[in-house]
């Protein structure tokens, strides 16, 4: 018997393939994470992330401008601070004259229409390198003591002009806490994109190199999720929805495509995914060796994250992918 049903008919020409393509990427899908460091006129390549740079505040404006020219309108700045300003309570995180918040305000002044998502977690400012407060004797990460600090951090970011607050710390109850702090200070229009399911992943390595933000002691497994767990992501989702998150995020993306799909199937909120530093580095390394076609691999990976259910993708590939989308 010859086949009656021939799916290949739907693949017989480029026009037909384009006509019925289910998933499409656009530059609007991307949120571009950018690293800002102290100093002037600095543009320092991250060794483990070829093509990704740490910019001083004056130089980051050009980088944002070149991304905007490619149709990228959402940015997630992360600060790399010197040890001199770090302390156990992350006090620098509310400093409106400090590197991070001044840069955020400056970007918003120069580009009023772009969306800035700021990062809420203690690690960039903490002498312990943890996302929450560390009990000096036991090494325990103190959930409720951290909430107060995270709330004040979010409030300062809103004052600096953040459009979206992105709590990446994984403390319990922080979405409700931050929502309450924002609302009671006339920032009810500021959104929260919760890092809902952030896994304790080895794929964050290059990011921690870039910002020198690795924990001084211990690991993050008492707050970030166990990569073996799927249902736990749905419990975190239910809590973030109840606490008032506007958008939810899965991080990392590639080893967690199943989680992205699962979360997408269980929520009506927009779902985002963070294509993290290690995922970027793997592709770049293989491409530099000539082992994969870097551009095609990048586009396939980003497409897979969107197909899995992500409405938007945080990715270091944002500019490169936007160029491919624009020029082919
Ligand atoms: N809060 C940001 C991270 O923990 C890491 C992101 C990355 O590896 O790209
Ligand atoms: Mg949670």
UniProtKB/TrEMBL annotation:
<comment type="similarity">
    <text>Belongs to the ALAD family.</text>
</comment>
<keyword id="KW-0479">Metal-binding</keyword>
<keyword id="KW-0460">Magnesium</keyword>
<dbReference type="InterPro" id="IPR001731">
    <property type="entry name" value="ALAD"/>
</dbReference>
<feature type="binding site">
    <location>
        <position position="236"/>
    </location>
    <ligand>
        <name>Mg(2+)</name>
    </ligand>
</feature>
<dbReference type="GO" id="GO:0008270">
    <property type="term" value="F:zinc ion binding"/>
</dbReference>
<dbReference type="InterPro" id="IPR013785">
    <property type="entry name" value="Aldolase_TIM"/>
</dbReference>
<keyword id="KW-0350">Heme biosynthesis</keyword>
<dbReference type="GO" id="GO:0006782">
    <property type="term" value="P:protoporphyrinogen IX biosynthetic process"/>
</dbReference>
<dbReference type="InterPro" id="IPR030656">
    <property type="entry name" value="ALAD_AS"/>
</dbReference>
<feature type="active site" description="Schiff-base intermediate with substrate">
    <location>
        <position position="198"/>
    </location>
</feature>
<dbReference type="GO" id="GO:0005829">
    <property type="term" value="C:cytosol"/>
</dbReference>
<comment type="subunit">
    <text>Homooctamer.</text>
</comment>
<keyword id="KW-0627">Porphyrin biosynthesis</keyword>
<keyword id="KW-0456">Lyase</keyword>
<protein>
    <recommendedName>
        <fullName>Delta-aminolevulinic acid dehydratase</fullName>
        <ecNumber>4.2.1.24</ecNumber>
    </recommendedName>
</protein>
<dbReference type="Pfam" id="PF00490">
    <property type="entry name" value="ALAD"/>
</dbReference>
<feature type="active site" description="Schiff-base intermediate with substrate">
    <location>
        <position position="251"/>
    </location>
</feature>
<comment type="pathway">
    <text>Porphyrin-containing compound metabolism; protoporphyrin-IX biosynthesis; coproporphyrinogen-III from 5-aminolevulinate: step 1/4.</text>
</comment>
<dbReference type="GO" id="GO:0004655">
    <property type="term" value="F:porphobilinogen synthase activity"/>
</dbReference>
């Amino acid at each position: 018997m010859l086949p009656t049903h021939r799916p290949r008919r739907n693949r017989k020409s480029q026009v037909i393939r384009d006509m019925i393509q289910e998933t499409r990427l656009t530059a609007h899908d991307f949120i571009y994470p950018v690293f800002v460091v102290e100093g002037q006129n600095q543009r320092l390549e991250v060794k483990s992330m070829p093509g990704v740079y740490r910019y001083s505040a004056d130089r980051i404006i050009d980088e944002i401008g070149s991304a905007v020219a490619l149709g990228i309108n959402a940015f997630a700045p992360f600060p790399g601070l010197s040890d001199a300003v770090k302390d156990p309570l992350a006090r620098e995180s509310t400093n409106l004259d400090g590197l991070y918040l001044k840069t955020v305000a400056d970007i918003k002044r120069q580009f009023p229409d772009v969306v800035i998502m700021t990062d809420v977690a203690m690690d960039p400012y903490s002498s312990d390198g943890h996302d929450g407060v560390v009990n000096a004797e036991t090494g325990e990460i103190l959930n409720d003591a951290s909430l107060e600090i995270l709330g004040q951090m979010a409030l300062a970011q809103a004052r600096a002009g953040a459009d979206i607050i992105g709590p990446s710390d994984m403390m319990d109850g922080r979405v409700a806490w931050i929502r309450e702090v924002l609302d009671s200070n006339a920032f009810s229009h500021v959104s929260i994109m919760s890092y809902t399911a952030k896994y304790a992943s080895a794929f964050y390595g290059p990011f921690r190199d870039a910002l020198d933000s690795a924990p001084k002691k211990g690991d993050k497994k008492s707050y970030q999720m166990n990569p073996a767990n799927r249902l736990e992501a749905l419990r975190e989702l239910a809590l973030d929805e109840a606490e008032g998150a506007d958008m939810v995020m899965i991080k990392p993306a590639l080893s967690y495509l199943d989680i992205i799909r699962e979360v997408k199937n269980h929520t009506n909120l927009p779902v985002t995914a963070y294509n993290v530093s290690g995922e970027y580095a793997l592709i770049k390394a293989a491409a530099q060796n000539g082992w994969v076609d870097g551009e095609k691999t990048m586009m396939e990976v980003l497409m897979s994250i969107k197909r899995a259910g992500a409405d938007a993708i945080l990715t270091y590939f944002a500019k490169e992918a936007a160029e491919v989308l624009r020029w082919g």
